[in-house]
Write a structure and sequence with these properties.
The chain contains seven helices and twelve strands. The protein has an eight-stranded antiparallel barrel, surrounded by four helices. 31% of the residues are buried. 25% of the residues lie in helices and 37% in strands. The protein is globular, with a radius of gyration of 18 Å.
Length: 251
């Protein structure tokens, strides 16, 4: 994405220092890259771009975990307002890994609990997962969940991250998104970008601006799309028609 080069840089240490939102609202958009490039060119004075060792585009691999009967996926598909997601994330360019317990709160906020330098589910990770969930949702539904989890999907993508210089907002732009589950592999159609605005406000100033120029937010879930593209399940998070417009099968 050429427009990212126009933004002033921000380093990882400065980003970590200025961005501490473990509770936030996430708003997603899927747009044509050409349209995103135009918007970013017009707003380059409002954001700074994450830059590490001269790079502004970074490669990620995320591994998702679920129960054998896909309890966590089903909680999302059934529109449960309070639900969790468990995953590990690898930052491939910097050789960082971490375990994440991502919770959707009843008020629509997202809360993340992060454990650095964990990349597999062993005894220590199972305890971390169960303790984090018990703190967020002390419910029998997720009791001892960690020991029931198994790998259910993998996603890979390239991300650029922009930080607002005027407010507590963060925008990520994901391209080259691949989804893999159940022995099959799909990708986001070429030319499309998954944009996510993260903010302490339900509707941030950036979201207002994007909606004003005609962008429509989406409930697209990487994990949900990976499961639904490779399993025949009901109910669903995305319709089959919606996924067909966004994804291509990779042979």
């Amino acid at each position: 994405m050429d427009s990212i080069a126009a933004f002033p840089p921000i380093g990882l240490a400065e980003l970590d220092e200025s961005w501490s939102l473990t509770k936030r609202y996430d708003t997603k958009f899927i747009v044509e890259q050409a349209l995103l490039e135009k918007i970013l060119t017009e707003t380059s004075t409002e954001f700074a771009a994450l830059e590490i060792d001269g790079l502004r585009r970074f490669n990620y691999r995320t591994t998702y975990f679920d129960t054998p009967d896909l309890l966590l996926y089903r909680d999302h598909a059934q529109r449960r307002r309070r639900r969790v997601k468990v995953r590990t994330r690898e930052y491939l360019d910097s050789d960082r890994t971490r375990l994440e317990v991502k919770a959707k709160m009843g008020n629509g906020q997202t809360r993340k609990t992060l454990f650095e330098d964990h990349s597999a589910l062993g005894t220590a990770e199972i305890d971390l997962i169960d303790n984090a969930i018990a703190e967020i949702y002390p419910t029998k539904r997720y009791e001892n969940l960690g020991s029931q989890l198994t790998q259910s999907a993998v996603t890979e993508f390239t991300r650029s991250t922009l930080i607002s210089r005027n407010s507590a907002e963060r925008m990520t732009c994901d391209t080259e998104l691949f989804l893999e589950s159940n022995g099959a592999r799909f990708r986001l159609k070429p030319g499309l970008v998954l944009v996510e605005v993260k903010s302490p406000q339900r509707i941030s100033e950036t979201v207002r601006q994007l909606r004003h120029v005609g962008w429509h937010s989406t409930s697209f879930s990487k994990y949900g799309a990976a499961i639904e593209a490779t399993h025949d399940l009901r109910p669903r998070i995305h319709s089959a028609e919606s996924l067909a417009r966004k994804l291509d099968r990779v042979d």
